Amino acid sequence: MHEPGWAPLTGFRVAVTSARRSEELSALLTRRGATVTSAAAIAMVPLPDDDELRMHTEALIASPPDVVIATTGIGFRGWIAAADGWGLAADLTAALSRARIVSRGPKATGALRAGGLPEEWSPDSESSREVLEYLVAGGISGLRIAVQLHGATDDWDPFPEFLDELRAAGAEVVPIRVYRWHPAPRNGAFDQMVLDIADRKFDAVSFTSAPAVASVLMRAGELGVSDELLSALRTDVHAMCVGPVTARPLVRLGVPTSAPERMRLGALARHITDELPVLRSRNIRVAGHLLEIRGTCVLVDGEVKELSPAAMATIRALAQRPGTVVSRHDLLRALPGGGTDTHAVETAVLRLRTALGDKNIVSTVVKRGYRLAVDESPVGVA
């Protein structure tokens, strides 16, 4: 069988915001054909330098908790590793072993067992909500609960409602914030990524942690592009999140998100591969050809046609209402650069026709403008 000369994500642009394992995710997406831009949204506070974590660790050793909640495998292992660096690992493990231990998911469970701390219970769903319901149903009033959290910034908490509901049920909560984060430095690659998201220069942006989401939103505010960024995320730039906790800050702002069933990096890459072509491609029968319009290219009968930014802007404008005449002035407004000479439209159309390989795909309507010479209604519109 004939192999296509393109990959599933050919022609799509994806922003990667991960601080950890960004190279791995970028490689997975690149192998699938995506054009990837990576810039970490957050910078990690080194565990040995985290005075708050050490203070809470020593307090729990001095006064062991009644209940321990482990939310992530990497976070719990990081906590034990930090304690080991301070010479406190054995004391911490001994203190935690006296408590009832609840795990949020299999990775946290594995980390607990590796440390000799078997869990009392863990939900199949990996849901914090189920953990909360389980504990509240058993009664936690007056109990001291240590909650291992993964990923807080200096002014943002990833689990505020979860902690508040534990307190509302009468528990004393000790939040253990393993791996605290700072936003990425100013005036660097991350700032440019945020501006490009706001300018709709990506088809999707991937998030693997809620702090990364918070950092993007905060930096957009600092750069004065909050409205533009949220508008882009609600329309043309699709937010692909590793799981519901990561997506929550966006959902609260009315931003559509999607996530894989399993909260894993590989699953996120597969999810983007499956979903992005559905969300961000448009299939139209034109002049006897099947056109698939993607982020930076067009497939004509399955063959990739690389287009300039002006040509891509032109075909997108024509494809908004396939078969309808689009005036030269409207096409001029769609072109990048904000020019005022309609001759630029004629040049863009000429180059578009040349790149597509069939001049009949774009028809000239005398004294009115241009249109796609559609054979029928679009066969797939995202």
Automatic annotation (TrEMBL):
- Domain OmpR/PhoB-type per the UniProt entry, residue ranges: 281-374
Q: Which CDD domains does this entry report, sorted A to Z?
A: HemD (cd06578), trans_reg_C (cd00383)
Q: From the record, what ranges are coiled-coil?
A: none
The processes (GO biological process) annotated in the record are:
phosphorelay signal transduction system; regulation of DNA-templated transcription; uroporphyrinogen III biosynthetic process
Quote one Gene Ontology molecular function term.
DNA binding
Q: Which residues cross the membrane?
A: none
Arranged from A to Z, the UniProt key words for this protein are:
DNA-binding
Which residues does UniProt assign to DNA binding?
281-374
Entry superkingdom: Bacteria
List, alphabetically, the SMART domains matched: Trans_reg_C
NCBIfam families named in the record: PRK07239.1
Extract the PANTHER family matched here. BLR5956 PROTEIN (PTHR40082)
State the protein's name: Uroporphyrinogen-III synthase
The organism of origin for this protein: Mycolicibacterium arabiense
